[in-house]
Please model this.
Amino acid sequence: MKRREYRVEELAEEVGISVELLRSYQSRGLVPPPRHVGRLALYGHRHLERLRWIRDLKARGYSLRMIEHTLDQGESERRPPVELPLDAGEEWLTLEEVAEQSGVRPGVLRSFEASGILRPRVVHDEERYTTADVRAVRMLLTLIGGGLPMEELMKVAHVQLDAAEKVAQGAVDLFMRYGRGPLLAAGLPQKEEAERMVAALRLMIGAATGLMTYNFQRMVMNAAQGAIESGGTRSERAALAREFERKGIDLSIPGVAAAS
Model:
């Protein structure tokens, strides 16, 4: 049986990514070039599997640079490196590089930091930025560009940040008691205990982040549906119902990101 071939739009939809992102992967050599029939570019099963592999690795925290390295080394696509440092999924950036990639001036980024919207990493007592910070700024700009007033948005954001801070601290407290505690009690060599602790922390971060994303997304969807059902027009209710029926309405769960 002949395997299906895809146009670029069809392949992107099948994988759940944008055409622009697919072409970006291709330009970086992560995806082989398509077969051409005249001006028509056709992609096959090999391209589909490669894109799914890239998507799965990114969901596990691998950056495009790490994925490129895996291909350069000629390693099996189905056997990625096991050890993944907590910061391995992102590339280190300066504040100026975050500004350049996001299109927001450094001074404005500093104001975002002061408000708690932007949170750089602290490594060896120094603030460090990653591509995750670029994505956060872009998402903030998307909300503002959609017509949400900055001042009102910040009020809502502070409520969410305060709640997230408590959840994060609670998750870490549980990890210290039930994740790290048993490892210390096991009497393992210090190096082995430390490596297992980091692996357990990595798992906890990914699972906790994914669970929070899932719950918050569903809460927003349900709240929006309730608001439109009670106060929207018939056309709005019908349009929202069609949108919620789409498979793609659920966002991908980070750690279980990431745009580059």
